[in-house]
Queue: 4 jobs
Job 1
Amino acid sequence: MFRTVRRLTGRAATVALREVAEHPAARDPAVQRYVRSPMNWFFLFVAAVLFSVSWPTLSLTHSVPAYAQPVVAAFAALPVALVYCAPVAGWAVSVVSAQLIGLLIPTVNGWPWSVQVVHIISLLVLTFAAYLRCTLRWIPVVWVSTCIVFVLAAPADARGGWVFGLTFGAVVVALIRVLARSRRQLAVSTEQKQVVESQKAILQERTRIARDLHDVVAHRMSVVVVMAQTARYRLVDVSDEAAAEFEAIAVSARASLDEVRQMLGVLRTDGESTAAPNPDLDDLGSLVDHTRLTGATVDLVDTVAHEKISAAAGLVIYRIVQESLANATRHAPGSTVQISILSAQVGVIEVCVRNTAPTAEPVRLPGAGTGIVGMVERAAAVGGALTAEPTADGGFAVRALIPDHPGNMVAAVGSAVGASE
């Protein structure tokens, strides 16, 4: 018999729990957050204990009909369940209900307070929880409202003590919170200062690195320039073709040294380095001539008016052509490179660099290339678009549409090649 009752009780409990879990209210995010917190369960247990005390003792202090006693007891005790999750809301319910009970429900048996002891305990707990959790500007509101309730609910000879206690608690809690907030602000300020100091250290390290790089690279490149320029005097039987090749090497090394110094100037923060002027469309001829010295066949068609193109657009076009020529010489040696810079439409410049299939083994360099990605980013930075893709004859083509002035935007040329060079 006992086993049967226990089995039936277990089944009933399981069914009840399933029904509760499947109820829409149980799926509410606020309800789920409440039941996940152990502190909420603790205060819910405290509220249940207070309710179990308030209901049977309510008739000893107040004249309340039996059917209304659980409601009054609930208003006195259950707001404690909100101490951890919503103390201000629980305090508001407790304050309003205490005031209404004191005004509407008479006391019996000479009870000097207008509310129960349980209600007094709940209100005190919720008041100090509200002191701790509400915003600082709301502490005076909580203090004044609670003091009014205690002045109306307490006996005449006890009102001053309760008001003093509530005032003392409000002042102490407010001072503690102000002190805690000041310490948090000091911690944030200290952290920000540390961030500034770390950034300063990073800038100093960048300056040191730039200085070291400049010294090393400048020395090596200068040695290359000197060796190339003095080769005809140091070596015996240097032909005119070899001398011209050495001179071309020296010219390219000097140009590379200038560009390296310009890039390293970005890292310098001490004002010691001066940036070289940026190249523009007028420098394309020199760029093509230097590329031809490598043995590549390069044809340039440039029909745009350089003075009508902004400096930013000119720099982007130059860098796109420069990177495309470098790619062609590395990956398609022996090919023919055709460069065209034309006016595609009003305010838009079309740049096309196309090379044929290579006739020699490509130069294999370590590392993954990022040149195409860099060209796409440069074009996008001025409102343009760029595509790079293989051609049907085994070559490669880079096509870009660049606005001649900042602020203009162009439509996408097409889908750029996903793989880097």
Job 2
Amino acid sequence: MIDKSRRGFLAGVGAAATTSLAGCAGIGSGSQTLTMIDWGYVYNDGVIEEFEDRHGVTVERQAAQGSAETLAALRAGRADYDLVPLGNYAVKPAMDEGYIQPLDIDQIPAYDDIFDFLKKPYFETDGDIYGSPRSFGQTPLAVNVDLVETEITALADLWSDSLNGVSGGRDDARLQVLYRNAAFDTPLNPSSASEIDFDALQSDLIERLEVTGGLWNNGGESESLLRNEEVGVQPVWNYVIQTMQDDGLPVERVYPSEGTKAWFIQHTIHAEAENPELAHTFIQEWHTMMGYRSLMEPNNIAVPNDQVFSEQDVTRESYGLDNPDRFIYEDPKPPELIKQYANTWSQAKTEAN
């Protein structure tokens, strides 16, 4: 469903702070509509309505399912939005296949303050930048200490017979292969099928599934599995753990010894966006005005920008960002390899007891 909202103009300090940028972009005619596809949890505290008020425009948002699904929609010609947030692994194929356009970094001064370790080389080509990191999250292990008596320190523990029936995980082939590679100390992100022993991979995934008590597809399902004690340990998004801890549940956060899976979402602009200037303005104001209130404060998901951390007087340590070397990432992969991962995961689920 498309989320449409429109409010009258509100004068104030926030509006004054963006007048010059809006003027340069030609915003404020009252006839512009910024379209985007994005996750609903990202926008809180009325930030979309305030953006509309500042610039005299309308924002229309289509609910996103996931970066893989958005990339598929781009390929099918069903994602002709101005602003298209994508996970790090999805930016390069969207860029290489011509679905997104280079960003005009001069229109995004806040880009300079984005954490350097997230400005991946695969977001660039021929000196042009196609993705601007907008949010950074982690997927540590959630451990219900009332259900799990074994000490959990690593992803490899998810294969332990001692966790039979209480281990959980996401029903996602790419992620399960990444976790397996980390747990078995094999290359994390091979770039071609020739580098992979698919028989060994499938065997390892079957072993993982045979001690698994439940699989999930979204944050709500992952939380439900833990709250209902259907599983006692699984990798989940950090904010899910925080929510359960806030409710007094006996769930602890464990950063695996092999590395914690991290994810980050980039703002990208469609190659044929109708309002690219307005999209640039939105990206800039996400960092300077909206991101902390909208996502970082309510959901404990970081806006990876030094200026945001400084202005809000929060530390990187409080968001688990004090040691970037402890993270593992899913890098872009060829579509053919992704299909092979999906087939291998599907076969493993079929053969698992």
Job 3
Amino acid sequence: MANAPGTVTAVDDLVVRSMAVGAVFSDFGGGTINCVDFHRKDDLLVTASEDDSVRLYDIANAKLLKTTYHKKHGADRVCFTHHQNSVICSSVHNIETTGESIRYLSMFDNRCLRYFKGHKQRVVSLCMSPINDSFMSGSLDHTVRMWDLRVNACQGILRLRGRPTVAYDQQGLVFAVAMEGGAIKLFDSRSFDKGPFDTFLVGGDKAEVCDIKFSNDGRSMLLSTTNNHIYVLDAYAGDKRCGFSLEPSANPIEASFTPDGQYIFSGSGDGTLHAWNINTGEEVASWSSHIGVASCLKWAPRRLMFVAASSVLTFWIPNYESPDSGGLPPDSLNPV
């Protein structure tokens, strides 16, 4: 990685167009990377992949720090806890026989700190509260479960129709649940048992939502659907701000906000990556992913970088020598 990614202040069209591959990691045993997640405060990335591995990376130095294998349970969804060496990870194997659908793992010494039992089928959505030890999981058994890292027992259950997808807002006060028919229900995380306080519908599109993200400023919500569409909604009113169509893909495609919430990036079924400005609704840039269909894509919360993954993991950073960077000096594009 020739240039370490700088600390984010804001992103503009020139920065977006200058993004290029800065590092490549390809030793995943030929399997697909299922999920990626960044630590909120430290320069760390975790991946879970089909070869049953969970891997920890130093993103500032583009370095693989640790690989652990989980042959009994597999590794599907993964996300950091608040500790830099601990993650929660959902299982692929033996869910029906062991019930151990989610594990709390220490990457430091490769130990399972706790098992969370309850889901009867695969977990397809997993997210950690940004403010405490609570987390949520959505499963193909049509339930969303609330958990606390400190105890084994489930703290609450929502029974739904369809494939549930879950996400906390950046303040941890609200969470969103997507369900059958494209409905998005918003809950107060402190009193979810009272039911949703609002429901949003994406007009005319009843496809299942496979991913939800809130922008860092809390103003926008990003939805990716199983029929290859992306929508940006106003997180307060539910109005559609913009929408984009992708080339068809056999697997769900993940999209991501930039840290300032002004752009979204996504892979597509034809092996390209795309970036749009959500204020204008215009595409700003597109690239070959160089790795086929990138089903995982996520921006780092504190860096001018994003990762895209298929069976290969790539780090993307600004290339200031690119003609698309407009000839601006690095310090004007990449403030630290």
Job 4
Amino acid sequence: MTGRADDGHGSPVGRGTSRDRWPDGGSAGGLLSGPGGDALREVASRVRVLFAGGKGGVGKTTVASALALAQARAGRRVLLVSTDPAHNLGHLWGRPMSDNPTRLTATAPGHAAAGGAGNDARGGHGGGAGCVDGVEIDPARTIDEHLRQVGDTLRRLMPERLSGEVARHLELARDAPGTHEAAVLERIADAVETGLAEYDLVVFDTAPSGHTARLMALPETMSAWTEGLLRRQERSARFGAALRGLTRDDDGAGELVGRRDPRAERDGEIRRVLLRRRTRFERLREVLTDPATTSFVLVLAAERLPVLETIELHEQLVKLGVDVGALVVNKRSPAGAGGLLDARRTREGEHLRTLDDALPGVPRTEADLLPDDVVGEAALARFAGLG
């Protein structure tokens, strides 16, 4: 497993539209127990799919993990999925992780055991026990599996003499623009489908803003692209059928009755494949744009570029029809610390006024800059304010 350590940890100190409405000094409690925590808890509690996104290095993994743990402590079964190629989940939880679900939480008080920590967690739910299972999507494995499925379909549909061309095309496609995004989208669809069927909540720890915005737009793009392929395939099938009809004479037509038509079967298989893909992407888009099912938490630092990027990402998500449920301002300089930290807090307040002016209706929670790293379940529980 590879990845960089998440460097944005903190505990919130309040919620408001003005710097003067936040308490001075120290911590106001954990992420969910301090001012503004109730709104964040409500968002996580009411949905089945939750995304944590924002600029790189602001603490998305910490916030996503804290929300997942809080929901597990409330009795929900949570699937926590990292879509960022530079994974942080394993570092944060202090667990070896993989592309398969791994149990991250110990048994919560009063809950029956639901599987050992660090073991493959599939099928380990039951007894009403809350848990967090984690997945770090492996980009290389995801692309390999995606291309394998595409290759199997192509080899089934294409003449055997073209198998070499199919292999060459797939090898070239491995590093082609869009291959990684298409493969990750398939895994996100898998995670959403698995989560809705086997878990109570899916929490996505996403890649930095630009990647995430493109990824959230892909279901609609892929649906439209697949629809175009279907239209072209239908025209091709009709043309082929008409051409075959013109080449048959009256004497030969009767002999073909009841015989297999390989080309018609191939056309039918292509259509079924395209219809399955269109249906899957349409279903994913319906889930992502249903505010009763899915919401997005934007995580940021109180600095100029993260604030501007957050405002831009919010605009893009709203245009896509995705609900933005809350803001988490992480790594906030503490009040009353004097010197450099006081000067930074003053400047941060100016940036947050820009944020409040742009997004006045989105609930906001702040999180103090902490001197220590958040590593492991116990530290995450303290960060979240779970006692």
